[in-house]
Amino acid sequence: MQNRRRFIATVGTPVALAAAGAPLRASVFAPQPTHGATPAAVAARLSNWPGSPERIATDEDFWFEVGRAFTVDRSLINLNNGGVSPAPLLVQDAMKAHLDYMNKAPAYTMWGVLQPQKESVRARMARAWGVDPEEVAITRNASEGLQICQQGFNLQRDDEILTSTQDYPRMLTTFRQRVRREGVVLNEIELRVGSSDIRDIVSRFERAITPRTKLMLVSHMINITGQILPVKEIVAMARAKGVPVIVDGAHALAHFDFRISDLDCDYYATSLHKWLFAPIGTGLLYVRRDRITDLWPLMAAPPEMNGDIRKFEEIGTHPIANFLAIAEALTFHQGIGGARKQARLVYLRDYWATRLLSHKGVTLHTSLDAGAACGIATVEIAGIEPGALAGWLFARHHIIATPITHPQFRGMRVAPSVYTTTEELDRFVDAMAHVASKGLTE
Hints:
Layout: H1 2-8, H2 15-19, H3 39-47, H4 53-56, H5 60-67, E1 77-78, H6 89-102, H7 106-128, E2 136-139, H8 142-152, E3 160-164, H9 169-182, E4 185-189, H10 198-208, E5 213-219, H11 231-240, E6 245-248, H12 260-263, E7 267-271, E8 283-287, H13 321-324, H14 326-336, H15 338-356, E9 362-364, E10 377-381, H16 386-397, E11 399-400, E12 402-406, E13 409-414, H17 422-438
Parallel strand pairs: 1-11, 3-4, 3-5, 5-6, 6-7
Antiparallel strand pairs: 2-8, 7-8, 9-10, 10-13, 12-13
Helix pairs in contact: 3-14, 8-9, 10-11, 15-17
């Protein structure tokens, strides 16, 4: 109970500005005292909350207090946290504090003071995910990191690239431009929707590799279903055949509990404004150290940077505030704990999915098997067009969800987050149950 009182007294306050010496906006969460808490203090109080991840997953008191760290509009039910997530207030305030300081004299404050601090963010991110800081580039999003890799390989006409039909459209578009421009060949395999069969998934990629296959792209978590692919096994198979693999981790990092080092991959790109809750416009690119030199950057860098991970950050003048506030997001994530976050997101997914599956005409396109997915799942109601359903949910209930239409399936992608309450999911289930029984009516 004492831990809970300490946590209530700190979480959800603009702690970053306090740490920076700026005045606190105490009225935001009045009458809760702030005690001048730092993000590290908030994380410590979170970490000290007793119980296993499975137990805390159902502890609504804990998650109520976590939710207070966000400034979300509770008149809306946001179930599209897979697209982009709101940042906690402490992250917002850190970014604003850096932005204010940067604008005092940018040629000095931005380049001379704040820019060097990016190195500590790099070091912390590398440490958190078990890799070397000299293998981590801070980018603006997963698309940028992935396109660095997709465009950075030397390919010849008729060289083959292997991916799947369920990869992110922007990444497929990137490869298709190389097809048009250079005459390379793009091969897209079909994966079984929502499969948890690791051997089948790996074998589908393996069977598609030919002597001309020079590059592969694999999603760690498929964005349209939340399906987790066996990346480590796919990478090992492809490496044995001499084929490099780019891993699209846009939805995976800080969503479920793993470290990049666990995957033994060479290239991994992700967005940090999804599940790490970092500022919008932040991402991470991992390139194994011995692969950096041979990978061309998306924007030109001088030859003396050939082996430097920072060559992938050569994007010209850009703001630094959002990159530095990644530090507060990481501290907040560590305070919750990766295993506890994963357990909660799985619990929330099962909470709504199992209830909806009891209704006639409802199909889930995401496996509920352990390890096959996490917080994202896609559900279909027979005879209901996803776009129309999304419009009805928002118009009638102010519920935000993502319609998915794919050649293999269609449905509604549902992505709650750590601030989502079970009451909000009850309302979502009631609305969907109404549609399942009565259609899109009043």
